[in-house]
Amino acid sequence: MTDPLLKYREQHKHRLNYMPWLYWSLKPKNRVWAEAWQQEYQAYLMEMETVEIGQNCFISPLAHIFAEPGRKIVIGDNTFIAADCTLHGPIEIGSEVAINHHCILDGGRVGIKLHDQVRIAAYCHLYAFDHGMALSDPIYQQPVRSQGIEIGRDVWLGAHVGVKDGVKIGAHAVVGMNSMVTKDIAEQSIVAGNPAQFIRLRD
Predict the structure, then answer these.
(1) Are 16 and 83 within 8 A, CB to CB?
(2) Which residue range forms the structural domain that includes residue 142?
(3) Active site residues
(4) What are the tens digits of pLDDT across the range 120-137?
(5) How many domains does the chain have?
């Protein structure tokens, strides 16, 4: 017979994997096992991959984090990465950053930089590389280009946003749900659409 407490704990872990912001509001009795769980997993991740993790973070064990030598991933304090995300370095993530479930971030050769307090909603895709498209060769044989992506402080990407290689999004900008960002966005701008277009400035 399964211990009811263990069943409860496993369900609680499942909830945290997909809603990791709850980690910081756990009751003390749950915080004890949750911190031990996270410390063990984060130690394993830093041993197996070229990853540096700050203090008081939540990294879902159901996320896929790959950081070979030369493709380091740095994660700042008080940041969370939810379940079913895929991160491939190089990536630099600031403090108090939220990466919700099913996001994909691939740093290409140059990398992705997320400044502090960036919020990335579910199913966002950031690819810091692109292929050539000349007709002379099949796509898979084309050279890969990489310029990098930079997301400024306090930027909010709504659900299902795509960000193209080479894009810089200025601090405090907001990108609406289902948008495709193909060019730079100025600070404090609200944009939406495919391709993303300026709507107004934040008040």
Answers:
(1) no
(2) 4-201
(3) 131
(4) 999 999 999 998 899 999
(5) 1
